[in-house]
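Two quick folds needed for the group meeting slides. Do the first one here.
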Amino acid sequence: YRKFDGLLRMVISGTQSQRGDLLSVLRQFQQQGKIAFGIHTSSTALVTCVISDYKTDHVHFLDGSNGGYALAAVELKRQLKGMRS
């Protein structure tokens, strides 16, 4: 992963049980005021490839379908607002 603006963003593949375990841990940290997070669940992902030179200069962007990072950001912003009030 690479942080561009101090935030960690990632697409994770897992089972419903694993998602439940992850959410449990994230919520514990959120309730302790240690983190704010957003999550969006999707059954598919989108990959966008930007290619200037196939051998030396290309990048792949991965996002969840049906809203992905944009919808996860809605929850993140709500939590951040609550932390500031």
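Then this one, please, same format:
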Amino acid sequence: MAGIASPSSGQAAPDPATPSTHILITPGMTTAQLPKVKAGAKVTLLVDSVGPIDTATAVFPYGAGREATIGSGPVTVQANGLNKTWQVEFWTDPSLEITPDGTEVKMHLSGTGPAGSAALDAPPYTDGVVVTEGTVYSDWFVVLQGRDTS
């Protein structure tokens, strides 16, 4: 994971320009081990493919039949021969009524190329890619201004 626009309290935000700060999602990670993001936060995910994959699609289901909004991607951001790094940005609904604390965001990735297709799903790779805690609404405040028209 290369970026979290609004991480939950206690979750370090990776710097997209500094790979050593990126959060690696490893096989078998449980919900308790997944990165914590606020509902509605933009998440930037990098995924490596090995072999001739030309196109990729991503879906991030969560909650009761919902899917995260895809902001961009998957797009190739780096290539080394046939191997590629893909970037995809997504976010959930920021409402805690729709995305309550503890919501697991799952992942379905697929890629196709001349040699066939490949898929990476979480689960079963992991319990998901992120879990929500809080909301980006808590990061905002509204200042109401008016004027005296009398």
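Slide caption for protein two: The chain has a mean pLDDT of 93.
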